[in-house]
Amino acid sequence: MDAGAERSGSMADSSTPTVRRRALLAAAGGTAAFAGGCLGRVRRFVDSDSPRRVRVRVATLPSDTDPYARRIARQVAEWLRTAGLGATVVPMAEEELYRRALLRGEFDLFVARLPAQFRRPDALYPLLHSRFVDGPGWQNPFGYENDRVDDRLDAQRRASGRRRMRLVRELQSTIARTQPFTLLAVPDDVRAARRTAYTGWRGVDLRSPLGYLSLNRTEGAAESRAGGQRRDDTLRLAATDERRTANLNPLSVAHRSDGVLTGLLYDPLGYATDEGVEPWRADSWTLSDDDAPVGRVRLREGTTWHDGEPFTAGDVAFTFALLSDTTLGEGEGATEGEDGSEGEDDGGGPVPAPRYRGLTTLVDEVVAADETTVEFRFVECAPSVAAHAFTVPVLPEHVWRERTASVSREGDADPTTEALTADNVPPVGSGPLRFEGSTSGQEVVLERFDDHFLTGEAAPGTLARRVGDVPFERFSVRVVGTGVTAVETVAGGEADATGTPVGADAVPRIGRSDALELLVERSPAPYVVGYNARRPHLSDAPFRRTLARLLDAEHVVEAVFDGYGRPAVGPLWDTRWYPESFEWTDGNPVTPFLGSDGDVDAGRAREAFRALGYRYEDGALVVGP
């Protein structure tokens, strides 16, 4: 193992946040046995059914929620069993999986998609830094602690140019060696669309609200609109994810598979584009070149929320205060660790919004200088990194201030508030669309907000000018069940496009229809196998690395994705940050597969585990004398 890099998991200082989570998990009756990275400690733990056999449970989603996750999990379990481990697949509803894995840490392994937000270096900060080992959501759900990773995560925030590039690549190399998670493969997002009412489907990003705003209405649709027909006034999507209609809270972890709906409802100050972070709700901003940058943001004048209340600098300052602590200071009693993270408390303390934690930790203070001017003071970081904080959704103070009350849910390891749990229906935002109505689990309908700045004249060259006016009067998302059903709905003319990706098995159906356009786009959300480093065996980096060598990503691409995807080593694939040594030429360059053509070589797997100090009895991997 990386001596001095992979920290011991033994209980050290009762003031650390790690100890707090462990104690809570133990009280909740979870698997509360935690070990360090050394096999000597691991041997003190036994399995309740078979005292010496190494067993793991693989949590994942059911087939009707995700077209690939369960198939991948079953294949992973088969590979592990070939190597002698006891492996069981446990499918569960998505909200339950996220509650157990991302809130309580109650898992051994999980198979899920890593959210698209982790496609830039600084986003890896909340995912893997040890200060977030107690955080809910996608804040270090692996319980991973590595000094070298922490150092480089901190340093790359402050660096720029070649030095930042070197730090980010070193960071990825350490992550690949220690395997807090194994990135299996990146699927293609497959969608179907009709050309009847809207064009430009291939040239836009349908994972972003800006993609739908950038579509073009056909001449026939415009004529129908002028003639008073309602059909072509609405952009209709057929989706398979009912969470979209049941919850419109932009802070929710369990209900937000993407940010399209909430992005249409809530504007950020800026959007991250290929040109960098560009102003959106903000008219302009400046950032100083200090070690701890200072930002001054000018807002567009005369804008309002959907309920007519003025949009002010006070709302921006309030938003960052709420995201940093959704109790707004009511949760008192928290101490602060040496690294600036929250430490042990008596049940109170800040309750930050986990979805945007990595961005809000960039911000030290936000002050409304006047009605349209906001001043930001950032922690030590490069200005280009600081600007990403402007991409969080701005929330109306007059609505969200009342959502700071704590919510007690028996068994949860972390406190929460109404701001994080409210379904937020009806929502009040400032985006180009406003809420019209919904039927939970069935449909949500948004309508054009005529007072939005997109309806006015934008300055030449700005992002708003490039996007243009909203091309529809209404935006409807209807839940139809499976991906195949979604495609049939589009083919039958009842929808304009599939709002969520469908499985590769729907490609032949799309191809057979002259009315449909096949949209294939590389997804930014890869499938990963996440390891719980708080568990026996899994706390050991060499053990996790050996597990990674039992997984054949190329086989997943061919057998599960039907070739619509690609294998990769880390989440920054296809970016300038990706190390050349990670390029996939003849198998995985970091954790080569212990087998061939999707079949694990049991002999090689046994040799690898024996080298770690394990042994076999009747084909089963065991520990002990």
UniProtKB/TrEMBL annotation:
Keywords: Signal, Transport. InterPro entries: SBP_5 (IPR039424), SBP_5_dom (IPR000914). Residues 277-615 form the Solute-binding protein family domain. It comes from the Archaea. Residues 333-347 have a biased composition (Acidic residues). It holds the Pfam family SBP_bac_5. Residues 329-353, 407-431 are annotated as: Disordered. PANTHER family: OLIGOPEPTIDE-BINDING PROTEIN APPA, PERIPLASMIC BINDING COMPONENT OF ABC TRANSPORTER. Belongs to the bacterial solute-binding protein 5 family. This is ABC transporter substrate-binding protein. It comes from Halogeometricum luteum. The lineage of its organism: Archaea, Methanobacteriati, Methanobacteriota, Stenosarchaea group, Halobacteria.
